[in-house]
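Workshop exercise sheet. Pairs work together: one partner reads the sequence aloud, the other fills in the structure field after running the prediction. Swap roles for the next sheet.
Pair: D.N. / O.F.
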Amino acid sequence: MKKRTIKPTEAHQLFHRDITTVMSAHPNLTPVEYLCLMAQLVGQLAGLQDQTKYTSEAVMTMIAENIKEGNLMVQMQMINADMRKPN
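Structure field:
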């Protein structure tokens, strides 16, 4: 499967904000608990994909690429936050 990157749409950004809002409403959960719960949700969503359109390998590749992209986004946010700190 050819790697395809798309720019997040307004709907994608709103969905992301909604998810993070829900997460912030549960401060008793640890980061690793958030990660495990979201991984279970991703697994469920992966299982719901149309197998006539996407192979299991293609779905797992999309998931892996989006995990990498999310990780890169957090790293960039951390770098930017550090750059804004006064010395």
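Discussion prompt: The longest helix spans residues 56-84. What would you look at next?
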